[in-house]
Design a protein that fits this description.
Rossmann fold, disordered N terminus, eight-stranded mixed beta sheet, 311 residues, alpha/beta
């Protein structure tokens, strides 16, 4: 009797625990060649489900979405590319590639087409916003919903940071104004973007800013970033056109914002309601890269929003 009981206990320890939660969908990693540029991207979820395209900010890459992707992928098909000169995508020279937001958007448009995606929602953050809004302007009928997480599209959202660093550079591109802007490429500034305004900076994995800085430190990357800093003025010039299209199309919009962001103020989130009154707005007690601290909270908000607006 005792031997039988011990045998049963032994084999019970080998059996899988019935209470273990189901695993999250696996994220896979790919490279696509678009116009001779290698675009790295992360993908998860079934392509039969509605697609969400995650467009990253500066100085990050699809790496910023590493914690969000599996949380969305149980219900959605998720694609997160790296732009040329960012993350694991290739870095063609400026002679080979025009580093402008218009060209980045055109390349992302071709990349999305290459994946066979014809309708999709966009999740935009920082640089992802001008790229995403250019896609929206080109194909408003394709965009099912817009999620903006510290992805600015209004002058109200431009914090004093812009007047201090970038507006002088836009007005007069000289060695003096460039020297000021080059400060934005240092490890101290990168780390600041990942910690300023955070409720608990110790929640941020240092791999985040270390990986972003590795991109900035690649030979030739500084000049690419300077070109994009200068070209950012074209995004601000397009704001009125974006707003007009928003008023016309009235897409579902979610603005989920790290309210302590020193770069894009919370006023940028609130401004969406002026053109799309149904905009859903959430203030997150965090900073610019709020996903580093509040991925679970943001994922839950996004999933609830999409369940109401994307089917």
């Amino acid at each position: 009797m005792k031997s039988t009981l011990l045998t049963a206990i032994f084999f019970a320890t080998l059996a899988p625990a019935a209470s273990l939660p189901a695993s999250e969908p696996r994220t896979t990693f790919h490279t696509a060649k678009i116009d001779n540029v290698s675009i790295f991207y992360r993908e998860a979820g079934s392509p039969t489900k509605p697609t969400i395209v995650l467009l990253h900010g500066f100085p990050s890459s699809s790496h910023m979405y590493r914690n969000l992707i599996p949380k969305l992928a149980a219900r959605y098909h998720v694609i997160a590319p790296d732009y040329p000169g960012f993350g694991y995508s290739s870095q063609p020279s400026q002679a080979e590639f025009d580093y402008s937001f218009a060209n980045l958007a055109n390349l992302m448009d071709k990349f999305i087409d290459s994946r066979g995606v014809t309708k999709y929602s966009i999740y935009v953050q920082d640089y992802g916003s001008p790229i995403g809004f250019r896609l929206f302007m080109k194909h408003p009928e394709r965009i099912r919903a817009i999620v903006s997480q510290n992805g600015n599209a209004y002058k109200e959202g431009l914090s004093p940071f812009w007047a201090e660093y970038l507006e002088p550079y836009w007005k007069d591109r000289t060695p003096v104004t460039e020297a000021k802007v080059r400060q934005l490429l240092t490890i101290d500034t990168t780390k600041l973007q990942y910690t300023a305004g955070f409720r608990n900076p110790e929640n941020v994995d240092p791999d985040a800013w270390t990986f972003s800085q590795a991109t900035l430190d690649r030979p030739g990357n500084a000049d690419i970033q300077l070109a994009l800093f200068y070209d950012y003025r074209t995004n601000v010039a397009l704001y009125d056109e974006w707003h007009a299209q928003l008023r016309k199309s009235q897409p579902p919009i979610l603005a989920v914002w790290g309210k302590n962001d020193p770069i894009f103020s919370f006023l940028g989130a609130e401004a969406f309601k002026r053109d799309v009154p149904t905009t859903e707005i959430h203030a997150i007690d965090s900073g610019h890269f709020a996903l580093e601290e509040e991925a679970d909270q943001i994922a839950n908000i996004v999933l609830k929003f999409l369940s109401k607006n994307v089917r």
